[in-house]
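Researcher: Re-running this chain for the archive, since the previous output was lost when a drive failed. Same request as before.
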Amino acid sequence: MTGKCLIIGAGGVAGVAVHKCCQNSEVFKEIMIASRTKSKCDALKNQLQGKTSTIIHTAQVDADNVDEVITLINSFKPDVVLNLALPYQDLSIMEACLATKTHYVDTANYEPLDTAKFEYKWQWAYRERFKEAGITALLGSGFDPGVTGVFCAYAMKHYFDEIHYIDILDCNGGDHGYPFATNFNPEINIREVSAKGKYWENGKWVETEPMEIKREYDFEGVGMKDIYLLYHEELESLAQNIKGIKRIRFFMTFGQSYLTHLKCLENVGMTSIEPVMFQGNEIVPIQFLAAVLPDPASLGPRTHGKTNIGCIIQGVKDNKPVTYYVYNICDHQECYKEVGSQAISYTTGVPAMIGAMLIMQGVWDKAGVFNIEEFDPDPFMEALNKWGLPWQECFDPKLVD
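Model: Regenerated structure tokens:
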């Protein structure tokens, strides 16, 4: 390995990943930041140049254009491509990695532009081609998906013979002061939240209306919060990869102001992904909405509070019941002091760097397309503690009913 990583994307998560790669210059000797908007890449480079021994390059690329990505990969010759662009571009970047026989890492599953579906089928279809090429595609190396999958794999390896129940709890106790804003890409966030809920139970998917199932949970470091059942893509892979699973659910916290604004926007059609004509031009309402909302990358200096994200896991070890809760607490303002971002970008960008690192080091080394829980969790868990996302354990947590 040459220690070279190509990072595609220049938003909030990419900004964190770039900072972390530069902190980890023993592994990341050279990085290239590439985006449709090169000025964003140059701004990141200017922040870090002279503060790291990592050599930083920048480039302009249209990640939807496979040939452009292939040309960029061939010119830079990275060990791994870290895809931090939009999920719509996963497949074009995977195609470019196949053509150049370059390892691939992302943080979110592919989504078609025309349908809000969160499924791995499009990327899993590449399994044989990546295997034949002798390269790795690591899917979902963010926090959720990402760390949550590693948490489950770690629990399975160390504490359980079988896991029967998993509840993933994602709490953002941060306050940015805006009436309505999203902590990551607005278009992706709103598509995710406004979709029908879904969870896995007794061998089949159970579908719910958006926000239909609500619970309360008292999160360490944050306090009591309303949590709502959503569908999240890691449920699909964990339902396949965790031995003995009977039920797996995903819950996320939302404040009432956020939900009220979202319902109003839905009612007037602003969250639609169907194109409409406006003054002679075709526009997609949700894309227009994303353009007028605050940029998630701008929320760092004004966001206070903490996140608490983890997994409550129930199962058996030596025929005895075991309950285990593993979670991370992250402080928005501490993240901003360190890398200039809020905690949502931080908790995704740090694991993205770790996933790329483990592949570059050859610690995770198998050809094909894999979700993160299919690798040995121990080196990733160790790296979380080292690189800014320390985790905590509890063997007597309050359960979600």
